[in-house]
Write a structure and sequence with these properties.
single chain, 68 residues, alpha+beta, 2 helices, 24% helix
Length: 68
């Protein structure tokens, strides 16, 4: 496979879509310290690489998605 690309359907043909372009045009983001992200990490067995929150960082609701 190719790094940095995802496969998608464009005009009934399979094409390679650059991941940075997909992410840049996404209407939502995920809270990296939220419940959903923790569940994904637990299901996939990946380590949590998100740094702990800094003291001046605003608190967040762990049940709500983080929207841009």
């Amino acid at each position: 496979g190719l790094t940095g690309f995802s496969v998608g359907l464009c005009n009934n043909r399979m094409c390679l879509l650059p991941i940075p372009e997909l992410v840049a045009t996404s209407p939502r983001t995920m809270n990296p310290r939220g419940r959903t992200w923790e569940r994904i990490l637990a299901l996939t067995g990946q380590p949590n690489t998100v740094p702990p929150p800094s003291e001046n960082e605003a608190p967040y609701d762990s049940h709500a998605p983080l929207l841009r």
